[in-house]
Amino acid sequence: MTDKHALIQPDRDQSATPIHVVDKAGLDDFLKGLPGAARAALAAQKFSAGPFEHAILPNGEDWSVVTGVANASELGTWCLARLGESLPAGTYRVANADSGPALFGWAAGQYRFDRYRAEPSEEGPRVLLTKAAAAISPALAEVAATALVRDMVNTPAEDMGPAQLEAEVARVAKAHKAEIKVTSGDALEQGYPMVHAVGRAAARHHAPRLLELTWGDPKHPKLAIVGKGVCFDSGGLDIKPASGMALMKKDMGGAAHALALAQLVMQHHLKVRLHLLIPAVENAIAGNAFRPGDVLKSRAGISVEIGNTDAEGRLVLGDALTRAGEEEPELVIDFATLTGAARVAVGPDLPALFTRRDETAAEMLAAGEAASDPCWRLPLYDGYREYLKSDIADLNNSGSNGFAGASVGALFLDRFVPVGTDWAHFDTFAWRPAAKPGRPKGGDALGLRAAWGLLKGRYG
């Protein structure tokens, strides 16, 4: 995308095109203050001050912009996002409101993924000036984290396999002087047997691995962030249909969210001991693929019967969550594109949230609302644990019926998180099937800023 640091700048009274924000309640008063030619121009453009509407106001050789918002006295995250996408390149300022709350949407709307285009977009930046100087750096950090998720999810699996995922973690680690550890080969088979089993059928250059990043003072509270890094999911021997495989480059979206959240933690120097874990695999098909009916060992010592090879994300997360728990963290947050059932339950826009503690859920939901990154809590209902019973092992990785699939997936993960540990699990889509202002179609961060808001509140 365009250099994010150029998109929002301090307002030092430099030359800029004015943006007037107007809501429906204030439209009549706004019109009364305009000369007749300007009123006629708005009428010709059929401007009614609806959200995301905008029109151009001529003023001799100059011009300004008027845009409709839901509430002109309190701008929201996305209210200027369409302007950030569609106005001509140039410098702008909001003339009659505090632009601070809208900075993120303005910049996020200028994201473009053009890595594979012969002629990448060369449109210049749309710069927004703001008097809220203290809000610029936090907004740009969240824009950068969101862009990281979008870039990683949008990149096809051949260019975002386990090795490339490792390279992304190493890049972020180097930028923040964090330590990185990679477990692969025989050590992976012995220490993380479910990660190895899921990933062993992949081609050699997509070999499985467990990625760990550590950062921060060991004396500070321990925070574990875990992300599902299934770089492509064929479904394994329980193969997906073509339609189900079409978007499976995004099955590492949980890893992208986890890495972006870790980046925010380190960039803002939160007083935590950070432990990032990403099991990076490709769920491929070959003669050595794990099979339906196999019983896998796990790092936790729990045996798992394979009811469905397409329920592989919970397997690799099980080993990673076990490793996270060995450090006795105060809080564990994981992100995963875990179940289609979550999308059936809450749709593409809302990541399903599961927590053990009501207060953690309340914090996360409130943080999501404050950041315009809403999530929705679903139950960790003990009564559904019986759906994961196996006749020959401790657990089955697939529910015994079609009920409550998102909750059953979360209950599987719950077995690998130490009892009593504060834990939040996001079953996120990591994809936007249709564009909205500031949110282009394609990979997207859903739940990232909600989790970041909780962490800022606790450790900032």
UniProtKB/TrEMBL annotation:
<dbReference type="GO" id="GO:0006508">
    <property type="term" value="P:proteolysis"/>
</dbReference>
<dbReference type="InterPro" id="IPR048816">
    <property type="entry name" value="Peptidase_M17_N_1"/>
</dbReference>
<keyword id="KW-0464">Manganese</keyword>
<comment type="similarity">
    <text>Belongs to the peptidase M17 family.</text>
</comment>
<protein>
    <submittedName>
        <fullName>Leucyl aminopeptidase family protein</fullName>
    </submittedName>
</protein>
<keyword id="KW-0645">Protease</keyword>
<dbReference type="Pfam" id="PF21337">
    <property type="entry name" value="Peptidase_M17_N_1"/>
</dbReference>
<dbReference type="GO" id="GO:0030145">
    <property type="term" value="F:manganese ion binding"/>
</dbReference>
<dbReference type="InterPro" id="IPR011356">
    <property type="entry name" value="Leucine_aapep/pepB"/>
</dbReference>
<dbReference type="InterPro" id="IPR043472">
    <property type="entry name" value="Macro_dom-like"/>
</dbReference>
<dbReference type="GO" id="GO:0070006">
    <property type="term" value="F:metalloaminopeptidase activity"/>
</dbReference>
<dbReference type="GO" id="GO:0005737">
    <property type="term" value="C:cytoplasm"/>
</dbReference>
<dbReference type="InterPro" id="IPR000819">
    <property type="entry name" value="Peptidase_M17_C"/>
</dbReference>
<keyword id="KW-0031">Aminopeptidase</keyword>
<feature type="domain" description="Cytosol aminopeptidase">
    <location>
        <begin position="308"/>
        <end position="315"/>
    </location>
</feature>
<dbReference type="Pfam" id="PF00883">
    <property type="entry name" value="Peptidase_M17"/>
</dbReference>
<keyword id="KW-0378">Hydrolase</keyword>
